[in-house]
User: What shape does this take?
Amino acid sequence: MKYEFTEDDLQEIEKIKAKYPEVKAATLPALWVAQNRFGHVNSDVQKLVAETLELPEAHVHGVATFYTQYYKEEKGKFVLDVCTCLSCQLCGGYDVLERAEEKLGIKAGETTDDGMFTLNEVECLGACGYAPMLQITNDKYVNNLTPEKIESLIEDLKAGKTPEYEQIEMPLRKVK
Ligand code: FES
Assistant: This one.
């Protein structure tokens, strides 16, 4: 597959570049533009970002691989990052993760065959007071989970509904 930015993407990247004295500083937001466009930043997309910013590929690769929020391979439409760090673990994070595995028929780290869901087990997402919790595709936090709640969350997402549980909107860009 050949990856190309749209004219709108290129204009957005130019605007981002104009904000900074050095083009290297535009790497993170340019990678977000790329991830929003393609759903991931695999090595071909990293190359495209490097060419667009006229930076070495090694630099863009280094940034992309440092942050787990940048997906280095294709993911499901919904990426469920279930926290199992201490607070979430003590409040039943593994019960939530196991129920999600059962419901989706996959293990943590895998993607469903229909490409709808990727399930991940992740470290603390900084919302320990709402444990156990998960994050959906680098965006919404869904808090105070139970095994029953994650089942209905998955059903809601499959049906195209917005989950009705307590959430915190994160100021990150939404992945299409
Ligand atoms: S331990 Fe889960 S958000 Fe901190």
Notes: The chain has two domains: 7-66, 78-168.
